[in-house]
Amino acid sequence: MCHSDIHQVRAEWAGTLYPCVPGHEIVGRVSAVGAHVTSHKVGDLVGVGCIVDSCRRCDDCSDGLENYCDHMVGTYNGPTPDAPGHTLGGYSQQIVVHERYVLRISHPEEQLAAVAPLLCAGITTYSPLKHWNVGPGHKVGVVGIGGLGHMGIKLAAAMGAHVVAFTTSESKREAAKALGAHEVVVSRNADEMAAHAKSLDFVLNTVAMPHDLDAFLALLKRDGTMTLVGAPATPHPSPEVFSLIMKRRSLAGSMIGGIPETQEMLDFCAEHGIVADIEMIRADEINEAYERMLKGEVKYRFVIDTASLAA
Ligand code: NAP
Ligand code: ZN
Ligand code: ZN
């Protein structure tokens, strides 16, 4: 369950189509394939992420960046000729997807549930970390330790960066270290924030609510970049231009990742033994889980056991 599911279900973003079945972190086993399918076979462990179709012809698709295709079809709430006219997502026991948008999973089967969140939280953090060349010698901030943020910490640490986690929750101070953060800052504490002023190369901001971006831009050193992946329903109150022109800083955005990079991320995670930290729930606990996510009470991703949908 991604925070985007909440934004969409509750029509916090424009354009929710009902009935809405969210879910774009999907794992399972192939139960049937079409006659012309060559990349997957019945019985394979596979994943489906945020994208189930795109034009397959434009420059973005040709570059494997289907996530930026103007005709990208989201796994839910996307246009489709099938009834009811829009796609229905992964809170379901089955889904039919073109082979191009189906990912191979090579983690051990017993980790399958904890692999699911990689399909959105994993790729959404992996892609900007790669694009902005995060690696050894870099000091990287990850802001907001939820589903995306906890993956951001694990991935940035695995890429060799020095990772500083920024949280509003005192209770996550030790937990963030256990995820691989080298330092943890409770962002409500001005002194702790000031200790990192002008020192970070890159900041990955995953926060789902509008907040003061200037406080984090001030932590970037010259030519540093803060990339926003959190997608609040209403605008941030900042930035102040001087936060950017001083030190030639950049403020950027990034959306999920393309299919080849999603496969690369899954393989990277399998190789490095990386999965999400999850709490499994039944389908009848979804509403309660949303409330707990909004209170920041999940460490760090809920996964629905879709077998419980049959109950
Ligand atoms: P999440 O699990 O709810 O985590 C969000 C975290 O943000 C919280 O755990 C909390 O961390 C922090 N936070 C919440 N309210 C805050 C506030 N008022 N001030 C400061 N920090 C606050 O959500 P998620 O699933 O990781 O998703 C995060 C955002 O990314 C959502 O807006 C989602 O729609 C978006 N998203 C974007 C993409 C993309 O492609 N760009 C993909 C997936 C999701 P602390 O307790 O540590 O402060
Ligand atoms: Zn998502
Ligand atoms: Zn395209």
The bound ligands are:
NADP nicotinamide-adenine-dinucleotide phosphate, zinc ion
* DSSP strand content: 15-25%
Please give the largest β-sheet. Answer: 6 strands, parallel
Number of helices, counting only DSSP H or I runs of 4 residues or more? 11
Distance between the termini: 20 Å
Order of strands across the biggest sheet? 8-7-6-9-10-11
How much is the average pLDDT? Answer: 97
Structural class of the secondary elements? alpha/beta
Radius of gyration: 19 Å
Please report the first level of CATH classification, the CATH class of the largest domain: Alpha Beta
**CATH homologous superfamily classification of the largest domain:** Medium-chain alcohol dehydrogenases, catalytic domain
Shape: globular
Q: Could you spell the SSE succession in H and E letters?
A: HEEEHEEHHEHEHEHEHEHEHEHE
Overall number of domains: 2
Q: Which second-level CATH architecture of the largest domain applies?
A: Alpha-Beta Complex
Assign a percent range to the helix content: 25-40%
What low-confidence regions span 5 or more consecutive residues with pLDDT below 50? none
> Under CATH, the topology of the largest domain is which?
Quinone Oxidoreductase, Chain A, domain 1
Strand tally, please?
Answer: 13
